[in-house]
Amino acid sequence: MRRFVRVLGEDLEAARRRDPAARSRLEVALAYPGVHAVWAYRLAHRMWREPLLRLPARLVSQVARALTGVEIHPGARIGRRLFIDHGMGVVVGETAVVGDDVVLFHTSTLGGRSMKRGKRHPTLGDRVVVGAGAKILGPVWVGDDVQVGANAVVVKDVPAGAVAVGVPARIRMPATTPAARDAVEDPSLLIEYVI
Ligand SMILES: CC(C)(COP(=O)(O)OP(=O)(O)OC[C@H]1O[C@@H](n2cnc3c(N)ncnc32)[C@H](O)[C@@H]1OP(=O)(O)O)[C@@H](O)C(=O)NCCC(=O)NCCS
């Protein structure tokens, strides 16, 4: 229980740290629907792990959706310090996996492309930022430190450190990432990444 409360406190602090508009932890605790949605998810996910509590878990998730505009399936696996900025319109599917210190802006979607059961939603590494309106669709892998541009549609894997923009998303490696530095040693890598 103490660990659970600590994780909720980290979510609060992550929002305060990442949003320049946030003035205090109290303000974040009271006025940030993205934080409320993450807290509700953490409760629902705990319930989801008990097979008999799966229906109540879905109900918690739906009440949170009605209150915050954020729908996170309780079966999704989400790391620590997720920050959902502005909340409204975010969807995270059942088999999505999200690393630590990730930011999701409003109306972003971690969705599926298939109606089949099984892994059908994306896996995000640590410190990924998903811009407003971006969609990441299917069981794709998005590496650590990736930035997905606003309104991008990602349907293929994105290497760590890359920036993905456009529809469908094009991959760009910023010159400062280790992968881009490797590419300078091996120009064939650069040709693959830079559009
Ligand atoms: C994608 C993003 C991370 C790129 O940031 P960056 O690395 O600083 O990149 P730059 O601004 O230097 O832009 C690089 C190129 O991508 C283009 N670009 C940037 N963002 C884009 C987007 N969302 N969609 C399409 N193209 C985009 C730029 O026009 C530029 O093109 P050019 O090389 O032809 O001139 C950023 O633009 C973005 O979309 N962040 C999401 C922020 C967000 O959702 N904020 C919501 C706040 S409420």
From TrEMBL:
Transmembrane segments: none annotated. Pathway: Amino-acid biosynthesis; L-cysteine biosynthesis; L-cysteine from L-serine: step 1/2. Pfam families: Hexapep. It is an enzyme of class 2 (transferase). Its EC number is 2.3.1.30. One of its GO terms (molecular function) is serine O-acetyltransferase activity. One of its GO terms (cellular component) is cytoplasm. Its main location: cytoplasm. GO terms for biological process: cysteine biosynthetic process from serine. Belongs to the transferase hexapeptide repeat family. NCBIfam families: cysE (TIGR01172), EPS_EpsC (NF041874). This is Serine acetyltransferase. The gene is cysE.
